[in-house]
Structures are given as structure tokens and as C-alpha cells.
Amino acid sequence: MHHPLDPRNCNIALDANALDQSGTPRDDLVEAFRQLSSDGTLNVVMAGGARDEVLHPNTPSDVQAIILPKVYNLQPGVSSAQQARRASVGVILQGKARPGKHAADASHICEAAETGCGFFITQDKRVLDKRVELESLLPPSLAIVTLEEFFQILDEYEAMDTARSPKIE
Q1: Which residue of 1, 75, 113, 167 is most buried, as measured by CB atoms within 10 A?
Q2: Contact 100, 73 (CB under 8 A)
Q3: CATH code at 7-164
């Protein structure tokens, strides 16, 4: 895997499930992400389809509160090259599932690539399990990660900055 971009200096895409809270210690990461996004440290760009998923009445209000204020990729149409990439990503995600079942996931991932995102954060096991296969279809600048992995990368960049900072005595 390539070295991911600095999360503070690139667009970040979220799958609709990326910020689900579950009553576990992971909820602290969700809150930390929300705060970093709210204060402008992180720049989140959402796929138009993910916005539609979040608007579903069964989506928890805390997830809606995090995601709905974001910038959305609201493309009026998709070029033939974009359609082809989405179809190829969909084939990888499909596995033994019925055709088209993972078309929305393929679209979300491709929109992240199209908008120049450095990260696509998801909790979707199928997507995470197919990361290596997807790398051949996606720009090397896009890393598909869990929220936990995202914070590990962010922490590494912050640690590098701290190590480079001159100490004032």
C-alpha cells in the first residue's frame, strides 16, 4: 500500500455507515471526527448517493447531524468513462451477490476518486475486504480505511509535525 496523504490537507469521503455509533469506545472516534470536521481541520466531501442514504427515516439522527451539513458531489450526470469505472468496481464488490446489489457502494467509492479525495472511510466489510483488488481501478491517492485506521494515520502525521517543531524554552 502507498503512503496515504495527510488527512488535514485533502478531501475525505465517508460511507453512510462510517460514523454509526454503537455504544462502544469507537463512539469516541466518531465524536472526535465530528469535532475535527466541524472546526475545519478536516474537509469532508460526501457522495450524492450517500446523502440520499442518510436522509432515510431509519438513519439515526446523530449520524444525520454529522453528515448532512457536509459538501456534496451533486453531479448532474456521469460520463461513459465514469460509468465504466463504476461497473468495474461493482463487479469486484459483487462477488456472489446478485448483480447490481453493490452498485451504490461502487458509485460512492468512485465519486470519492472523482472528487480527489485522499480517503474513503467505511465500516463495510465487503469494501474493506476488497481494498487490494480495488487499488487497480482507483487513483493511488485514495485510501479506503476504517475510522480507526484513519485516526492512526492522522496521529502519525501529527506526531511527525510535533517531532519537526522546534522546541521553545
Answers
A1: 113
A2: no
A3: 3.40.50.1010
